[in-house]
Predict the structure.
Amino acid sequence: MENVPGMVTARHFDAFNEFLNLFRDAGYIVKYELMNAADFQIPQERLRVIIVGMRTDLRVEYLFPTKLDSNPVTLTRAIGDLRIPPTPYNNETVNIRGNIIPNHDYYTGPYDKKFMARNRVRGWDELSFTIQAQAKNEPLHPQAPKMVYVSPQERQFVKGKECLYRRLSVRECARIQTFPDSFKFVYDKVIDGYKMVGNAVPPRLAFYIALSIRKCLSVSSSFDMNIALIGYVKSEADFNIVKREKIYYIRGDNRPGSMQYGQLTRPIKWLLLHRGKRVELFELVTGKAERCSQLFLKRLGFHPRGNEYWFFRINQVIEDKSLVSTIRKEARELKYSPYIINIESNVG
């Protein structure tokens, strides 16, 4: 399942958790994660909560896919070859036979004050803003210059360049969502075309989630597998506190790079921490995440800036170089955001 990131904010979290409990009561182990489509070669910044449930009788441990090791896909790569001008529509019935490129239609309705309150143009060498389901809120085409700041509540089009400002077409939005050109959307009104495209989960993101589900279901007895948390340490001073206090913490809010409780439902055996060339492996006490406050961490000597945190208690440092090497190899690229991996090798 997929929905907007506001679901996991403090304001709505209790209701969200009640929703998840309905699935748990029905016999599912439910996990969720805040994912950015841009991390999976999708040419837009699109934060969404992804929810995956596995039947408890399957006895499998699901892990979300990790960020791809690749360069971002820019608007040039996504829509730079669409040189034919799109067909403008407001409330007219769309002529589906009128375009050489299917769905290359754009909405010409007025721009309201909310839309004009901030820049709506991303350049050719950038990622798109999030593709919307409402036609009036679609991002503007990168052929136009960035909008000019007037006040915190107002931006303007560059004078003399007004003709360059138009919304992305339905086909351009579909490209940015990673729909193939062979996928044709059927609608009478252009606003309905935008709604179909904007409400969809990007197919490329769905593909990587499907691969992670297939991997989960193909691994037998994954409840008995070793699970490792890969974490980054911000400073040498923090590294020393971790070893002294035998505590490692991660953010628990809904910001990118944070982890939610839904990701931490299985005990974690290993903790691999890195900073620069320094990599150390630890065995955890129970592997269960505990909630803590900013004040708790400050008293230990850390300098947290957020409000919600999880922490793990460390049992001991692992000096076995072969074990460290095995987990390091399974982790592949060491990233700044914490993530969890299954250790498929027989370690520990």
